[in-house]
Amino acid sequence: MADENIDCRGMMCPMPIVQLTKAMKRMESGQVLEMMADDPGAKEDVPAWSHRTGNELFETKEEGDLIYFYIKKK
Amino acid sequence: MSEEKKLTIVVTEDTFDKAMMSMFMATTAAGMGVGVHVYFSFFGLNLLRKGFQPELPEKYKPMTGHFMEKMKGMGINSMDDMMATATELGVKFYACSTSMGMMDVAVDDLVDGVTVLGAAGFIDVAIDSDAQLFIG
Q: What is the percent of chain B where pLDDT is above 90?
């Protein structure tokens, strides 16, 4: 379902947000990114990033320590 | 969110912790669509010198390598790498001209893309920013 995937496992702040920003720059409007992260800070950081940039975080799933974020580029 | 927000950061020290902290904040804010302006003054100016490798302060100094190793495992590379990422994301760097004079630093000693200015020039940039951080 996603147009692009990024694996941020093992990365800590600020790298997941840096990778997320870089991925968004490569993508087209309306495309969906699946982001995988296990930085516990990402749970607050990704929604904050979404709120600020206007790219829609429409789904979050947690599997143990792993968090999946689904973001639609505005 | 319609108009761009602006963050200014002032860095007055050259230790590893403060250097990295400034770049964490700068890259994150830039990634959030914020215009970021970082002013390096006093010892902070060293961070703009080509090839400068910051170390932890005083009693923590021997732990610098350990910290760098741990950070590498988290996807965070050197200060050089963080500064390159910041530049790529549109962060602007400024060098304090008085500090350059005090510390005998020439324009050629600085990394590329730095604007040299004095306090008035930076105040002009900072005065209408939405948030300021002082790291020193």
A: 96
Q: Which of B83, B76, B96, B8 is nearest to B50 (CA)?
A: B83
Q: Which CATH superfamily is domain A4-72 in?
A: TusA-like domain (3.30.110.40)
Domain boundaries, chain A: 4-72
Query: Is the model's pLDDT at A60 over the cut of 90?
Result: yes
The answer to whether the CB atoms of B34 and A14 lie below 8 A apart is no
Whether residue A37 lies within 8 A of chain B, CB to CB, comes out as no
Measured at the CA of B4, the angle between CA A38 and CA A50, to 5 degrees, comes to: 25
The 3-class secondary structure across A1-30, one letter per residue, is CCCEEEEECCCCCCHHHHHHHHHHHHCCCC
Tell me what ipTM this predicted complex has: 0.87
Tell if the CB–CB gap between A15 and B75 is shorter than 8 Å.
Answer: yes
Closest-CA residue of chain A to B27? A18
User: Does the pLDDT value for residue B1 go beyond 60?
Assistant: no
CB contact under 8 A, B28 and A11: no
SS3 B70: helix
B82-112 pLDDT, tens digit per residue, is: 999 999 999 999 999 999 999 999 999 999 9
Class of domain B6-135: alpha beta
